[in-house]
Amino acid sequence: MLRKINRLLRNVNFFLLGVIASTLLLLCSACTPDYGVSVEEIIEVIQEHGDVWVDSFEQPQYVDGMDILWIIDRSCSMSNDDPKVVDGVEAMMSNMPTSNWRLSMVPMDTDYASSWEVFPLVPGDTVDDAQDMLDDLPFSTSVIEAGFDSAMSYMEDNEYADTWLRPSAGLLIVFVSDEDDQSIEDWDDFAYWLEDQRHAVFVASIVNVSTSANCSPSPGDLGTNYEDATNYFDGVLIDICSDDWSQGVKDASHNIELTEVYTLSETPEIDSIKVFVEGQEYSSWAYNEYFNRIEFIVVPDYGTLVEIVYTIQPVLDV
Does the reported pTM lie above 0.85? Predict the structure, then answer.
Protein backbone atom coordinates (compact mmCIF):
# COMPACT_ATOMS: atom_id res chain seq x y z
CA MET A 1 0.00 0.00 0.00
CA LEU A 2 2.85 2.40 0.88
CA ARG A 3 4.44 1.81 -2.54
CA LYS A 4 1.16 2.62 -4.29
CA ILE A 5 0.76 5.82 -2.22
CA ASN A 6 4.30 6.85 -3.13
CA ARG A 7 3.52 6.10 -6.77
CA LEU A 8 0.39 8.29 -6.60
CA LEU A 9 2.34 11.16 -5.04
CA ARG A 10 5.02 10.84 -7.71
CA ASN A 11 2.37 11.00 -10.46
CA VAL A 12 0.97 14.18 -8.87
CA ASN A 13 4.46 15.67 -8.85
CA PHE A 14 4.95 14.72 -12.50
CA PHE A 15 1.63 16.43 -13.33
CA LEU A 16 2.67 19.65 -11.56
CA LEU A 17 6.06 19.57 -13.30
CA GLY A 18 4.25 19.12 -16.61
CA VAL A 19 2.10 22.21 -15.95
CA ILE A 20 5.19 24.25 -15.08
CA ALA A 21 7.08 22.97 -18.13
CA SER A 22 4.13 23.78 -20.44
CA THR A 23 3.97 27.31 -19.03
CA LEU A 24 7.71 27.82 -19.59
CA LEU A 25 7.42 26.57 -23.16
CA LEU A 26 4.64 29.06 -23.86
CA LEU A 27 6.77 31.86 -22.44
CA CYS A 28 9.77 30.77 -24.50
CA SER A 29 7.84 30.41 -27.75
CA ALA A 30 7.92 34.17 -28.27
CA CYS A 31 11.71 33.91 -28.50
CA THR A 32 11.74 31.08 -31.05
CA PRO A 33 13.42 32.20 -34.30
CA ASP A 34 11.24 32.35 -37.40
CA TYR A 35 13.63 30.07 -39.28
CA GLY A 36 13.15 27.09 -36.94
CA VAL A 37 11.97 23.97 -38.79
CA SER A 38 10.12 21.20 -36.96
CA VAL A 39 9.71 17.55 -37.79
CA GLU A 40 6.00 18.21 -38.31
CA GLU A 41 6.73 20.91 -40.87
CA ILE A 42 9.03 18.59 -42.80
CA ILE A 43 6.33 15.93 -42.78
CA GLU A 44 3.85 18.41 -44.22
CA VAL A 45 6.27 19.28 -47.04
CA ILE A 46 7.06 15.67 -47.87
CA GLN A 47 3.36 14.78 -47.68
CA GLU A 48 2.78 16.76 -50.88
CA HIS A 49 4.79 14.18 -52.81
CA GLY A 50 3.34 10.92 -51.51
CA ASP A 51 2.62 8.80 -48.46
CA VAL A 52 4.90 9.67 -45.57
CA TRP A 53 6.42 7.20 -43.11
CA VAL A 54 8.26 7.98 -39.89
CA ASP A 55 10.65 5.47 -38.29
CA SER A 56 11.91 6.37 -34.85
CA PHE A 57 13.99 4.95 -32.02
CA GLU A 58 15.65 6.11 -28.83
CA GLN A 59 19.30 5.60 -28.08
CA PRO A 60 19.87 3.88 -24.71
CA GLN A 61 20.86 5.88 -21.66
CA TYR A 62 24.57 6.05 -20.93
CA VAL A 63 25.75 3.40 -18.47
CA ASP A 64 29.02 3.15 -16.58
CA GLY A 65 29.28 -0.62 -16.77
CA MET A 66 26.53 -3.25 -16.67
CA ASP A 67 25.27 -5.48 -13.86
CA ILE A 68 23.37 -8.53 -15.14
CA LEU A 69 21.07 -10.87 -13.21
CA TRP A 70 19.77 -14.09 -14.71
CA ILE A 71 16.80 -15.04 -12.49
CA ILE A 72 16.43 -18.76 -13.24
CA ASP A 73 13.57 -21.13 -12.45
CA ARG A 74 15.19 -24.16 -10.82
CA SER A 75 12.11 -26.37 -10.58
CA CYS A 76 12.25 -29.96 -11.86
CA SER A 77 10.50 -29.12 -15.13
CA MET A 78 13.38 -26.81 -16.06
CA SER A 79 16.22 -29.33 -15.67
CA ASN A 80 16.28 -30.24 -19.38
CA ASP A 81 16.85 -26.57 -20.24
CA ASP A 82 20.20 -26.32 -18.44
CA PRO A 83 22.29 -26.67 -21.65
CA LYS A 84 20.38 -23.82 -23.28
CA VAL A 85 20.82 -21.66 -20.18
CA VAL A 86 24.59 -22.11 -20.36
CA ASP A 87 24.62 -21.47 -24.12
CA GLY A 88 22.53 -18.33 -23.59
CA VAL A 89 24.82 -17.00 -20.88
CA GLU A 90 27.84 -17.73 -23.08
CA ALA A 91 26.21 -15.84 -25.97
CA MET A 92 25.60 -12.87 -23.70
CA MET A 93 29.16 -12.92 -22.34
CA SER A 94 30.59 -12.97 -25.86
CA ASN A 95 28.40 -10.05 -26.96
CA MET A 96 29.10 -7.78 -24.01
CA PRO A 97 31.85 -5.13 -24.09
CA THR A 98 35.31 -6.43 -23.28
CA SER A 99 35.29 -4.79 -19.85
CA ASN A 100 33.15 -3.44 -17.03
CA TRP A 101 30.33 -5.97 -16.80
CA ARG A 102 29.33 -8.48 -14.12
CA LEU A 103 26.87 -11.35 -14.46
CA SER A 104 25.32 -13.55 -11.81
CA MET A 105 22.70 -16.29 -11.88
CA VAL A 106 20.12 -16.11 -9.09
CA PRO A 107 17.69 -18.90 -8.13
CA MET A 108 14.01 -18.11 -8.65
CA ASP A 109 13.27 -18.71 -4.97
CA THR A 110 12.97 -15.80 -2.55
CA ASP A 111 14.60 -17.65 0.37
CA TYR A 112 17.60 -18.69 -1.67
CA ALA A 113 17.77 -15.33 -3.44
CA SER A 114 18.10 -13.47 -0.14
CA SER A 115 21.08 -15.60 0.96
CA TRP A 116 22.77 -16.65 -2.31
CA GLU A 117 26.48 -15.78 -2.11
CA VAL A 118 28.43 -16.29 -5.33
CA PHE A 119 30.73 -13.75 -6.96
CA PRO A 120 29.55 -12.89 -10.48
CA LEU A 121 31.09 -13.82 -13.79
CA VAL A 122 33.34 -11.06 -15.15
CA PRO A 123 35.24 -10.38 -18.41
CA GLY A 124 37.76 -13.15 -18.97
CA ASP A 125 35.54 -15.89 -17.51
CA THR A 126 34.59 -18.77 -19.80
CA VAL A 127 31.62 -20.98 -20.56
CA ASP A 128 33.05 -23.50 -18.09
CA ASP A 129 32.77 -20.87 -15.37
CA ALA A 130 29.16 -20.31 -16.38
CA GLN A 131 28.50 -24.05 -16.24
CA ASP A 132 30.02 -24.23 -12.75
CA MET A 133 27.82 -21.38 -11.55
CA LEU A 134 24.68 -23.04 -12.91
CA ASP A 135 25.66 -26.39 -11.40
CA ASP A 136 26.00 -24.73 -8.00
CA LEU A 137 22.63 -23.01 -8.29
CA PRO A 138 20.27 -24.66 -5.78
CA PHE A 139 17.07 -26.31 -6.94
CA SER A 140 13.94 -24.55 -5.78
CA THR A 141 12.19 -25.66 -2.61
CA SER A 142 9.29 -23.31 -3.22
CA VAL A 143 5.96 -24.41 -4.65
CA ILE A 144 5.70 -21.23 -6.74
CA GLU A 145 7.93 -19.56 -9.33
CA ALA A 146 8.29 -15.95 -8.23
CA GLY A 147 10.77 -14.19 -10.48
CA PHE A 148 9.83 -10.64 -9.56
CA ASP A 149 9.93 -11.31 -5.82
CA SER A 150 13.24 -13.17 -6.19
CA ALA A 151 14.85 -10.25 -8.03
CA MET A 152 13.64 -7.85 -5.35
CA SER A 153 14.78 -10.18 -2.57
CA TYR A 154 18.27 -10.47 -4.04
CA MET A 155 18.70 -6.74 -4.56
CA GLU A 156 17.07 -5.56 -1.34
CA ASP A 157 17.69 -8.29 1.24
CA ASN A 158 20.91 -10.00 0.20
CA GLU A 159 23.88 -8.39 1.94
CA TYR A 160 26.33 -10.14 -0.39
CA ALA A 161 24.67 -8.54 -3.43
CA ASP A 162 25.72 -5.15 -2.05
CA THR A 163 29.38 -6.17 -2.40
CA TRP A 164 29.22 -6.26 -6.19
CA LEU A 165 26.10 -4.52 -7.48
CA ARG A 166 26.97 -0.97 -8.53
CA PRO A 167 24.36 1.83 -8.29
CA SER A 168 26.14 3.75 -11.06
CA ALA A 169 25.99 0.87 -13.56
CA GLY A 170 23.14 -0.13 -15.84
CA LEU A 171 21.04 -3.14 -14.85
CA LEU A 172 19.91 -5.99 -17.13
CA ILE A 173 17.59 -8.67 -15.70
CA VAL A 174 16.88 -11.87 -17.64
CA PHE A 175 14.00 -14.04 -16.39
CA VAL A 176 14.03 -17.74 -17.34
CA SER A 177 10.97 -19.86 -16.52
CA ASP A 178 8.54 -22.31 -18.11
CA GLU A 179 5.68 -20.95 -15.97
CA ASP A 180 4.22 -17.50 -15.48
CA ASP A 181 5.35 -15.33 -12.59
CA GLN A 182 3.49 -15.98 -9.34
CA SER A 183 4.99 -13.22 -7.21
CA ILE A 184 3.16 -11.27 -4.56
CA GLU A 185 4.12 -8.17 -6.51
CA ASP A 186 2.09 -7.42 -9.62
CA TRP A 187 4.15 -6.96 -12.76
CA ASP A 188 3.47 -3.22 -12.91
CA ASP A 189 4.41 -2.63 -9.27
CA PHE A 190 7.61 -4.56 -9.92
CA ALA A 191 8.30 -2.46 -13.03
CA TYR A 192 7.78 0.79 -11.10
CA TRP A 193 10.14 -0.45 -8.40
CA LEU A 194 12.75 -1.62 -10.89
CA GLU A 195 12.92 1.60 -12.88
CA ASP A 196 13.73 3.43 -9.64
CA GLN A 197 16.75 1.23 -8.94
CA ARG A 198 19.00 2.52 -11.73
CA HIS A 199 19.00 5.29 -14.30
CA ALA A 200 19.20 2.63 -17.06
CA VAL A 201 17.24 -0.62 -16.73
CA PHE A 202 16.81 -3.43 -19.29
CA VAL A 203 14.65 -6.57 -19.08
CA ALA A 204 14.53 -9.76 -21.15
CA SER A 205 12.42 -12.88 -20.60
CA ILE A 206 12.87 -16.45 -21.79
CA VAL A 207 9.38 -17.86 -21.29
CA ASN A 208 6.47 -19.66 -22.93
CA VAL A 209 4.91 -17.38 -25.54
CA SER A 210 1.56 -17.70 -27.24
CA THR A 211 3.14 -17.35 -30.69
CA SER A 212 5.50 -20.28 -30.19
CA ALA A 213 6.04 -22.44 -33.27
CA ASN A 214 7.97 -24.98 -31.22
CA CYS A 215 5.43 -26.14 -28.62
CA SER A 216 1.86 -25.60 -27.46
CA PRO A 217 2.03 -24.41 -23.85
CA SER A 218 -1.11 -24.47 -21.76
CA PRO A 219 -2.65 -21.04 -21.04
CA GLY A 220 -1.53 -21.29 -17.41
CA ASP A 221 2.10 -21.71 -18.45
CA LEU A 222 2.27 -18.66 -20.70
CA GLY A 223 4.66 -16.05 -19.30
CA THR A 224 2.11 -13.24 -19.53
CA ASN A 225 3.36 -11.29 -16.51
CA TYR A 226 6.96 -11.56 -17.67
CA GLU A 227 5.88 -10.46 -21.14
CA ASP A 228 4.12 -7.38 -19.74
CA ALA A 229 7.13 -6.39 -17.65
CA THR A 230 9.50 -6.97 -20.56
CA ASN A 231 7.39 -4.90 -22.94
CA TYR A 232 7.24 -2.11 -20.35
CA PHE A 233 11.00 -1.77 -20.73
CA ASP A 234 10.95 -2.41 -24.52
CA GLY A 235 12.91 -5.58 -23.85
CA VAL A 236 13.40 -8.86 -25.67
CA LEU A 237 11.08 -11.89 -25.44
CA ILE A 238 12.55 -15.30 -26.23
CA ASP A 239 10.54 -18.47 -26.78
CA ILE A 240 11.72 -20.94 -24.15
CA CYS A 241 10.63 -23.82 -26.43
CA SER A 242 12.99 -22.75 -29.21
CA ASP A 243 16.11 -24.83 -29.74
CA ASP A 244 18.47 -21.86 -29.70
CA TRP A 245 18.15 -18.80 -27.46
CA SER A 246 21.41 -17.20 -28.57
CA GLN A 247 20.04 -14.69 -31.10
CA GLY A 248 17.48 -13.34 -28.65
CA VAL A 249 20.13 -13.14 -25.94
CA LYS A 250 22.40 -11.24 -28.33
CA ASP A 251 19.54 -8.83 -29.04
CA ALA A 252 19.11 -8.27 -25.31
CA SER A 253 22.84 -7.54 -25.04
CA HIS A 254 22.65 -5.05 -27.90
CA ASN A 255 19.95 -3.05 -26.11
CA ILE A 256 22.70 -1.36 -24.12
CA GLU A 257 24.69 -0.33 -27.21
CA LEU A 258 24.24 2.75 -29.38
CA THR A 259 22.40 2.13 -32.64
CA GLU A 260 24.83 2.76 -35.49
CA VAL A 261 22.74 1.25 -38.29
CA TYR A 262 18.94 1.35 -38.60
CA THR A 263 16.93 -0.68 -41.12
CA LEU A 264 13.91 1.21 -42.46
CA SER A 265 10.41 -0.23 -42.20
CA GLU A 266 9.45 0.76 -45.75
CA THR A 267 11.27 1.38 -49.04
CA PRO A 268 11.82 5.15 -49.34
CA GLU A 269 12.05 7.63 -52.13
CA ILE A 270 15.75 8.24 -51.56
CA ASP A 271 15.69 12.02 -52.13
CA SER A 272 12.92 12.42 -49.57
CA ILE A 273 14.79 11.00 -46.55
CA LYS A 274 15.27 13.39 -43.62
CA VAL A 275 16.82 12.45 -40.27
CA PHE A 276 16.16 14.31 -37.02
CA VAL A 277 17.86 13.98 -33.65
CA GLU A 278 15.93 15.54 -30.76
CA GLY A 279 13.83 17.43 -33.30
CA GLN A 280 16.81 18.98 -35.12
CA GLU A 281 17.68 17.99 -38.67
CA TYR A 282 20.78 15.75 -38.71
CA SER A 283 23.19 15.31 -41.61
CA SER A 284 25.83 12.78 -40.45
CA TRP A 285 24.32 9.72 -42.08
CA ALA A 286 24.23 7.81 -45.35
CA TYR A 287 21.54 5.65 -46.94
CA ASN A 288 22.51 2.11 -47.96
CA GLU A 289 20.09 1.23 -50.73
CA TYR A 290 21.10 -2.44 -50.91
CA PHE A 291 20.24 -3.08 -47.25
CA ASN A 292 17.56 -0.33 -47.06
CA ARG A 293 19.11 1.16 -43.95
CA ILE A 294 20.47 4.38 -42.49
CA GLU A 295 24.15 4.17 -41.53
CA PHE A 296 25.29 6.87 -39.13
CA ILE A 297 28.63 8.54 -39.83
CA VAL A 298 28.48 10.25 -36.44
CA VAL A 299 26.34 8.13 -34.12
CA PRO A 300 23.61 10.05 -32.23
CA ASP A 301 24.41 10.35 -28.56
CA TYR A 302 23.04 8.38 -25.62
CA GLY A 303 19.44 9.10 -24.63
CA THR A 304 18.50 10.91 -27.85
CA LEU A 305 15.33 10.45 -29.92
CA VAL A 306 16.05 9.74 -33.60
CA GLU A 307 13.30 10.19 -36.22
CA ILE A 308 13.64 9.23 -39.90
CA VAL A 309 11.04 10.76 -42.21
CA TYR A 310 10.55 9.77 -45.84
CA THR A 311 8.07 9.24 -48.65
CA ILE A 312 7.25 5.59 -49.28
CA GLN A 313 8.30 4.43 -52.72
CA PRO A 314 5.13 3.55 -54.65
CA VAL A 315 4.58 -0.06 -55.67
CA LEU A 316 4.20 -0.34 -59.43
CA ASP A 317 1.35 -2.44 -60.74
CA VAL A 318 2.51 -5.28 -62.97
Answer: no
